């Protein structure tokens, strides 16, 4: 029996999926092939997020897909992971947009919001009639969110926010920002709407990574919002960290998608490229490199799938997510670098996807917890000692 080395699915992981999971994956894969891949290199080159794809993504049910209410699809977490895998096979910027909308904005509203907040925002966000962003990271750092400088002070029936957030995906295009600020009672979450007095945004230019994504700064200059915009159930740092767990889960699948894209293009190149009289696939050293890439992807696929099964069973721990995010994004980045090298001089061209994925993954390995942070989270789980 021939093993699937082209997709790749060397361990027949497809057989471990349900019919519904395969259908979701294949539907999103077609969307990526037909709508994302034809335009994404140009978007990356010209630093443009393809907003024209947002309504189509909403029509496919890609925003908040695991919620069973508010007009969402009610999918399981493996299906959600496969969505993230396929979107990142297209580009990290596309997956980041969906990841923020679902895991970092809809999730905290669904989990920590009032009924009024849920009814107002979630149906609109599922349809992409409203866009959200997540404000946690600040100019002075993001790895230690407990030291955040953004403050919220209660004044009468309102809250007044002062401070800034940085490296915020979708910041300037968002209709609402989920903002985390320090109060006299600890960290609290707030919904800051576009146009609120004292709230402004600014895009961060000149990026060499995530160029097909909007990345912004958020500024709060005595920004006044009503008490009704506070997330009533979000108390303490655990609330924003739980949101990061949702986003990191999707990223663990996304790293696999980026690696698959690089592998497919590189394998086809090796079949066609003739060197010293024969195709590269005939060369011993090239077979070793391709086999090693396949090995890494297969391990990442199995890790992501088991993580999804644990999440669906309700037994997933945040340290499971840390290990998977650390492993699979590192794997994706290493595979992208290896593939770019195999492609030779042409590998630096935007027309070749590995260099684009490589540059994107330099950001992905940093955001939602750096590689080192996740190593230390796992280390603390092993030893019982926090070494941050």
CATH class of the largest domain, named Mainly Alpha
Q: What do we call the CATH topology of the largest domain? A: Butyryl-CoA Dehydrogenase, subunit A, domain 3
Overall mean confidence score, pLDDT = 96
Q: What is the level-2 CATH architecture name of the largest domain?
A: Up-down Bundle
Shape: globular
How many discrete domains? 3
Structural class: alpha+beta
Largest sheet: 4 strands, mixed
Q: Spell out the helices and strands N to C.
A: HHHHHEEEEEEEEHEEHHHH
Per DSSP, what share of the residues sits in E-state strands of 2 or more residues? 15-25%
- Any idea what the radius of gyration is? 21 Å
> Would you report the number of β strands?
10
How far apart, in Å, are the first and last alpha carbons?
49 Å
What's the helical proportion of residues?
Answer: 40-55%
Q: What is the name of the CATH superfamily of the largest domain?
A: Butyryl-CoA Dehydrogenase, subunit A, domain 3
**Strand arrangement in the largest pleated sheet:** 1-4-5-8
List segments where confidence is low: pLDDT < 50 over at least 5 consecutive residues.
none
Summarize the structure.
This protein is an alpha+beta fold and 388 residues long. The protein contains 10 helices and 10 strands. Helix 4 packs antiparallel against helix 5.
Describe the structure.
- The chain is α+β, with helices and mostly antiparallel strands.
- It has 3 domains: 13-126, Acyl-CoA dehydrogenase/oxidase, N-terminal domain (Butyryl-Coa Dehydrogenase, subunit A, domain 1, Orthogonal Bundle), CATH 1.10.540; 132-235, Beta Barrel (Butyryl-CoA Dehydrogenase, subunit A, domain 2); 239-383, Butyryl-CoA Dehydrogenase, subunit A, domain 3 (Up-down Bundle), CATH 1.20.140.
- The protein has helices at 19-45, 54-59, 77-90, 92-112, 115-126, 238-272, 284-313, 318-342, 353-364, 371-383; strands spanning 132-135, 151-155, 158-169, 176-183, 186-193, 199-203, 215-226, 230-235, 274-275, 278-279.
- The strands form 3 sheets. The chain has a 4-stranded mixed sheet with strand order 1-4-5-8. A 4-stranded antiparallel sheet has the order 2-3-7-6, with helices on one face.
- Strand 9 (274-275) and strand 10 form a beta hairpin.
- Helix 8 crosses helix 10.
- The chain is globular.
């Amino acid at each position: 029996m021939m093993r699937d080395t082209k997709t790749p699915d060397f361990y027949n992981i497809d057989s471990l999926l349900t019919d519904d999971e395969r259908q979701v994956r294949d539907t999103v894969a077609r969307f990526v092939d037909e709508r994302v891949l034809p335009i994404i290199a140009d978007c990356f080159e010209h630093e443009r997020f393809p907003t024209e794809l947002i309504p189509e993504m909403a029509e496919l049910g890609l925003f908040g897909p695991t919620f069973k209410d508010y007009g969402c699809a009610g999918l399981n977490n493996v299906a959600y992971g496969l969505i993230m895998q396929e979107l990142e096979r297209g580009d990290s910027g596309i997956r980041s947009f969906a990841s923020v909308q679902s895991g970092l904005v809809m999730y905290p509203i669904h989990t920590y919001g009032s009924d009024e907040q849920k009814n107002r925002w979630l149906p609109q966000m599922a349809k992409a009639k409203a866009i959200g962003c997540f404000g946690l990271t600040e100019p002075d750092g993001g790895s230690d969110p407990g030291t955040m400088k953004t403050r919220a002070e209660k004044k009468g029936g309102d809250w007044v926010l002062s401070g800034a957030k940085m490296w915020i995906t979708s910041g300037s295009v968002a209709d609402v920002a989920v903002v985390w600020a320090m109060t006299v009672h600890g960290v609290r979450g707030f919904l800051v709407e576009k146009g609120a007095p004292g709230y402004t945004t600014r895009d961060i230019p000149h990026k060499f990574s995530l160029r097909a994504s909007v990345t912004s700064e958020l500024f709060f200059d005595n920004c006044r919002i009503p008490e009704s915009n506070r997330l009533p159930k979000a108390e303490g740092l655990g609330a924003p960290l739980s949101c990061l767990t949702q986003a990191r889960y999707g990223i663990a699948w996304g790293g696999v998608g980026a690696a698959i894209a690089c592998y497919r293009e590189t394998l086809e190149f090796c079949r066609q490229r003739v060197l010293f009289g024969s195709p590269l696939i005939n060369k011993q050293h090239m077979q070793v490199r391709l086999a090693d890439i396949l090995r890494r992807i297969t391990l990442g696929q199995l890790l992501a799938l088991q993580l999804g099964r644990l999440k669906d069973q309700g037994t997933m721990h945040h340290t499971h997510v840390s290990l998977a995010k650390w492993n699979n994004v590192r794997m994706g980045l290493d595979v992208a670098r290896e593939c770019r090298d195999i492609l030779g001089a042409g590998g630096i061209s935007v027309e070749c996807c590995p260099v684009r994925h490589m540059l994107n993954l330099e950001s992905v390995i940093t955001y939602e917890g750096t590689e080192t942070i996740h190593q230390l989270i796992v280390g603390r789980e092993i030893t019982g000692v926090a070494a941050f």
